[in-house]
Amino acid sequence: MKIQAAITAVGGYVPKDILTNFDLEKMVDTTDEWIRARTGIHERHILEKGKASSDMAAEAVKIMLEKRGISPLDIDVIILGTVTGDYIFPATANVLADKIGAKNAWGFDVSAACSGFLFSLETGSRFIQSGAYKKVVVIGVDKMSAIIDYTDRNTCIIFGDGAGCVLLEPNEEGYGICDSILKVDGSGREWLYQPAGGSLLPPSEETIRNKQHFVHQEGKTVFKFAVTNMADVSYEIMQRNNLTADDVNWLVPHQANLRIIDATAERMGLDKSKVLVNIHRYGNTTSGTLPLCLFDFEKQFKKGDNLIFSTFGGGFTWGSIYVKWAYDPA
Ligand code: UT7
Question: Are 118 and 166 in contact (CB under 8 A)?
Answer without folding.
Answer: no
